[in-house]
Structures are given as C-alpha cells and as structure tokens.
Amino acid sequence: MNRRQEERRAYYTRYKQDVKTRGRSFFPVAMFHDTVMSLLVVCVIVALAVIWKYSTPHEDPSSSGWLGKLYDEKADPGTTNFVPRPDWYFYFLFYLLRIFKWPESVILGTVLIPTILIVLLIALPFIDVGRERRPLRRPVAMTAAILVVISMGTLTYKGATAKEPLAAENLVLVPQWAQKQGFADNPVAVDGAKIFAQVGCMNCHTYEGAGTSNLGAPDLSSIGKTSNRGVAGFADYVSNPSKFGNNVMPQFQDLGADNLRKLGTFLQSSGNCNPKSSNCPAAGGQ
C-alpha cells in the first residue's frame, strides 16, 4: 500500500469518526430541513402566481399588473418579422454557431467541444482526489475554473447581444432585387421578396450577395432558372421540405397559402426574368 492510499484511508476514518461524534443523521434532521425548504419554495411560487393573477385588472387582462400581463395578443403563426432566439442558457452555444461555420467546423464547435467539457466535468471528482481545498494551493484547478467562467460568460454575453439581420435592413434590398431580376412590375413577386427578407430565409440563404450561407443552404439568386419548379412547386417545397428529402430546412407551412404563393412567385421569378423583356411569370401564375 502506497502513502497516498494510506492517507486516504486515514482521512476516511477520521471523517467517519467526526460524523459519528458531531454529525447529524439524515433522518429525520436533514430530511426535515429539506422538506421545510421545499415547502417554502412551493409557497413562494404559489404566492407569486396568485399576485400575478389578481393584481391584473379583470376588465382588461392585457394590461400589466404587479408582475406583468396575464396574456398578450394571440400568437400569429403567419408572422413574417419574428426572429427566433434561444433561451439565455443556450446563448453560448448560439454564439458558437457564429464562430464555427458550416460545414467545415460546426461539428467541432457544437458537439465535440461541449461534449468534451461535460465529460471532463463528470470525471473531475475521480481525477481530483486530493484533500486540499484552499484555492491558493490549487493553481491548476483554479486557473481552469476561472478560464471556464470567463469563456462561458463571454460567449453568453456575445450571444445575448448578437444582432440578427433586421427585417428593415433586408427590406431595403427588395427594390434592387426587383429591378435586377426584372419582376418590379409583378406585385406578387415583390410581396414574396418582402416575405423572403423577413421570415428568416436570409439567415441560411444568400440572394444577390446578401444574407448568410449556413448549413449548406444554396444561393437563391437564380433558383427559378435552375430548379424551375413553378410557383406551386416552390410553395409546396417551402411549406414542407422534408417531403422532398430536405430534413435540414425548417417547415414554413404556418405562413399560410397566400404567403406561400407569393414566396413561390418570387422564387420562380429569380433567374428567369430579363429586365429588357417581359418574360416574368404573371402575378400569381403557375
């Protein structure tokens, strides 16, 4: 038996003796304390819920009470200006997606690095078996902990303050697209371009040099010429891409049939129009 094993056994013996002479049993002492604390937390939650409910004027539930509104306007599944954001505790991972780009290194940033850190965190109690707990006597552990806290804090802050392409900024480009692609006289295609600029398509696709290429999404500047699905075909594809074998692109069926038709008209017009001719599809045509 080496010296380290002897020290650990001696420490364990002293620990058990201290528990026996000065410690308190789990039942009923610790269990009673846990029960009381749990009950207190539940009472606080119930009290906050009651205050939130009854501090709001009953004649106008949408007005704000002491703890906020009971509810706001109903969610609109066909909205074109909502920018999805993760919960705050995923901001660090959200920002990693901006650092590690698809497809070269996204797996490294979103899967391998978090997995390695989690495995190290689980293994830490088995690796660090020393009895020393004074921070100044543990330079490696303290340095690692400080670096992790700083890294997580920085990534969380950067993710929280990261700016998405604003719909207003994208909408400014629509007239330029219409002139260059030749669908300025097609109001349905113009409306579809506005929808394209607002619903988040440009977070993954590029169009006439604008937008961001993510997850292998193609440039759509000439999609109408290269795919030639037709208005109805594009609308059906965007509604549910998984039917066509695309399990990466999200579904946009909640935009509604009218918005999907406009979006399909815009996509079919892209690459098919010559500004000097009138070969753009008719408004709403197939």
Summarize the structure.
The chain has 286 residues and is mainly α. It has helices at 3-22, 26-54, 91-99, 106-127, 139-161, 167-171, 174-181, 187-198, 223-226, 230-239, 257-269; strands spanning 64-65, 68-69, 206-207, 210-211. α3 (91-99) packs across α5 (139-161).
Describe the structure in your own words.
The chain is an all-alpha fold. The chain folds into three domains: 24-74, no CATH class; 84-163, Helix Hairpins (Orthogonal Bundle), CATH 1.10.287; 167-269, Cytochrome Bc1 Complex, Chain D, domain 2 (Orthogonal Bundle), CATH 1.10.760. 54% of the residues lie in helices and 3% in strands. It is built from eleven helices and four strands; from the N terminus they run H-H-E-E-H-H-H-H-H-H-E-E-H-H-H. It has a two-stranded antiparallel sheet. A two-stranded antiparallel sheet has the order 3-4. A hairpin with a 2-residue loop joins strand 3 and strand 4 (210-211). Helix 8 (187-198) packs across helix 11 and helix 10 (230-239) packs across helix 11 (257-269). The longest helix is centred in the first third of the chain and has 29 residues, at 26-54. The protein is elongated. 20% of the residues are buried.
What about the largest sheet? 2 strands, antiparallel
C-alpha end-to-end distance: 84 Å
Secondary structure tally: strands: 4
In CATH, what is the class of the largest domain?
Answer: Mainly Alpha
Read across the widest sheet, the strand sequence of neighbours is: 1-2
Output the number of helix runs. Answer: 11
Helix content: 40-55%
Query: What is the name of the CATH architecture of the largest domain?
Result: Orthogonal Bundle
Structural domain count: 3
State the CATH topology of the largest domain: Cytochrome Bc1 Complex, Chain D, domain 2
Overall pLDDT level: 82
Tell me the overall shape.
elongated
The secondary-structure class comes to mainly alpha
Low-confidence stretches: 275-286
| SS strand fraction | under 5%
Series of H and E elements: HHEEHHHHHHEEHHH
Rg calculated over all Cα atoms: 29 Å
